[in-house]
Amino acid sequence: MQIDECQEWADRAKALASYAKQAHDDDLHKMAVRIKVRAIDRCGELLKQCEAAKNQYDARARAGAGARTRTQEAQNAGLSKRQQVTAVRVHNVPRHEFESLVESDKPPPITRLARRGI
């Protein structure tokens, strides 16, 4: 075994220890959940600015000839219908309640937030 090979194994052991520590770090998990929830909330905010189409023809007529509906915008962004509805519901949660839940010691999953926004 050469010195370079020993250094490689030492580096691997150090990296493994670092990844193991990260895997058990609840603070990292909470931050990731918060980032994801805030991204979904922002999607909902932007989608709510689009015309909701109960009748696509009427929605386009009201919004202008080239206007696109909320559903079309969501699809163009790569969101499914379920993700679109969830995002809008998450954004419907009153802001003070949303902030206190997201910043709590145990941020709720997106589905639980969406149920509060119905």
Helix share of residues? over 70%
Q: Would you list the SSEs in sequence order as H and E? A: HHHHHHH
Mean pLDDT score: 89
Individual helix count = 7
Low-confidence stretches: none
Number of structural units classed as domains: 1
DSSP E strands, number: 0
Strand content: under 5%
Our Rg estimate from Cα atoms comes to 22 Å
Summarize the biggest pleated sheet. none
Terminus-to-terminus distance: 64 Å
Per the principal axes of the C-alpha atoms, what is the gross shape?
Answer: elongated
Could you name the key traits of this structure?
about 120 residues; mainly alpha; elongated
Description:
With 118 residues, the chain is mainly α. The chain has one domain (26-116). 73% of the residues lie in helices and 0% in strands. The chain contains seven helices and no strands. It has helices at residues 3-23, 26-48, 56-63, 70-76, 81-92, 95-102, 110-116. Helix 2 crosses helix 5 (81-92) and helix 5 (81-92) packs across helix 7. The radius of gyration is 22 Å and the shape is elongated. 14% of the residues are buried.
Quick structural gist:
The protein has helices at residues 3-23, 26-48, 56-63, 70-76, 81-92, 95-102, 110-116.
